[in-house]
Amino acid sequence: MGKKSPAGSIREIQPGVWQVSAMHGYTREGKRRRAYRTVHGTRADADEERLRLLADMGRYPTLGDPMTMDEYYWCHYSPDRHATTTQANAKTHDTIWRCHISPELGSRDIGSLTYQDIKHWIEMLPPQSAPNYVRTMRSVLAQAAYDGVIPESPMENRRFRMPKGRDTTPKPVWGAQEVMEALGRPAFRESQLFALWCLMCGGGLSRSEALAIDWEGIRWESALGMDGKEHWTAYVSIDHAITTEDGLKGPKNSRRYRSVPIPSVFADPLHAIRSSGPICQSTRYTKDGGKPTGHRLTPDRVPAKWRSYFAEGGCLEGIPFVWLNRMRATYATLMQGAGIDSTLINALQGRSQNSEVLYSNYLNPRQDAFVQAAKRLQDGLETG
Hints:
Helix content is about 40%, strand content about 20%. By secondary structure, the chain is α+β, with helices and mostly antiparallel strands. It folds into three domains: about 5-60; about 70-145; about 175-375, hpI Integrase, Chain A (Orthogonal Bundle). The strands form four sheets. The protein has a four-stranded antiparallel sheet, with helices on one face. A three-stranded antiparallel sheet has the order 5-6-9, covered by helices on one side. It has a two-stranded antiparallel sheet with strand order 7-8. Strand 7 (about 240-245) and strand 8 form a beta hairpin. Helix 8 (about 195-205) packs antiparallel against helix 10 and helix 8 (about 195-205) packs parallel to helix 12. The termini are far apart. The model has no long low-confidence stretch (mean pLDDT about 85).
């Protein structure tokens, strides 16, 4: 039997599981506003939750109003994202919502969505990209709770098991051998993307950050090396990034504003080709070959140009191909191999000190690193 009152009701839908409702105020259409929650426990727990729901409806004027997931996303969440974050980020959310969330849940009332609904939706997602879609859904529901549209997100403080079958194999990076071989190729040093590569592989910059650097923004310091020759260290200040969608913009967060030293193995060849304007420029072709235009190379031109370096006759022919954006991961992996603490690597690359992205997206220790780790354990045990 359900327990009813003028302010709502309590109904046991199965042993120990209760549906509570509360009524407060009126909807835009002039009907009484009613909201529902499911409670696990005793009747006393259900009655307590009904009173809490009634109080929440008094605090949040839209709680109980009918609003579909699609209505909230396109009328509230998406406009806010386009106004407050990068266009690339906002468009990614829009695409994920349109293609992977709306078909299943877009017509659902946002206030009725439960943990089980989310769990069922996740089980149907493609394994490889499921974490990205879940992040978007979590962000939308958290914002809806913040806006007072729902009292709390059904995903708050909940972990979800991702669909099986996701390939978690780390994407390839270069080791020290490949990096030094690339540095030793004169044709690569003269190429359009060499300076860009140096900042990414030697300083851990992202491609969007490195493309925004001008030669005038690099500070140089020289010192006499052990070989008796003058060597350079370059200090690069990151205060902009550039993407196809947003053009030149500020970094995505305050941690991305930083100054990064580039060691001499990269800085020496950089200093030898230093110029003015953007470090990576578009070219115009003349009878004497390609000439820099003085204009910054657009981001969408980079992948094809980089790929061409590995083709027959290319300046990097014979070196294992990895995409240019993996040079940031190459930097992180080499730094870890050199014994640099992950907290410092995160700081150098503009991430929070406990960021899991370093391990999940960047580090890819080679087999010889595992062998070296085992040798250090052996040495430590033998020396006491």
